[in-house]
Hints:
Layout: H1 13-24, E1 31-34, H2 37-43, E2 52-55, H3 72-75, E3 82-87, H4 97-100, H5 103-106, E4 111-116, H6 120-123, E5 131-134, H7 140-149, E6 152-155, H8 164-171, E7 176-179, E8 193-196, H9 201-214, H10 216-230, H11 233-255
Helix pairs in contact: 8-10
Amino acid sequence: MNEYPFTWFFDRSKEIYSGKKKIFNGVNNLTIITPSQWLADLVKQSFLKDYKVKVINNGIDLNVFKVTESNFREKYNLQDKTIVLAMAMKLSKQKGIEYLLKLPDLLPDDYCLVLVGINENQRKLLPKNNCIGITKTNNAVELAGIYSAADMFVNPTLGDNFPTTNLEALACGTPVITFRTGGSPESVDDNVGLVVEKGNLDELVKAIMKVREKGKLFYSSNCIAKASQSYDKEKQALKYIDAYKENMKAKETAYL
Length: 256
């Protein structure tokens, strides 16, 4: 409540809810598209439940996010390390930063946690050993190189719809480990990574070790195939066009 809808003195959530209900329930022939089944299920529990709901997963640019060679390991002297990659924008609690910061002390010394997306002040808060903090990358190609260099991508999110970072990692051939939170596990199966119960740090550590034991090569081709089949932004865009055409056809039929 102190984040959205944010107010200084008054709780405006009821007012905003009523306004949204009035506006949306006045729309005819409406199809609601959500990026995840999790969100679609929530819609069916809301005042929008009588409308048609369709799931179209987010897409990414597979011309950018693909297996990409880089000197990342050499640059940070990680040639003999198992790289556990994570995104840490703003060191957000919602994104599971408290779990990430505990990992370096719970994993063997031949692991290294790499956090991308922090600022210089946040870098000072990171564990001193087996942890590297990187500020924003210069471009998406550089980020694809980091994904590709990592042995696994860890996303211990505590609340997410359908995180794009999971898709980017898969497209770069990197297995994903995530908490069973929101729509995050919908992009992950046993062929491309592991799903851990929300907030279970011990199981998260075990999952990381299990993925290393199987090896990145065990997952890589499946990760790339899944991204190509399900998360190509061009294919996903066409699904929106098909949904629009379907709505228009239904509208024309209603007028007959």
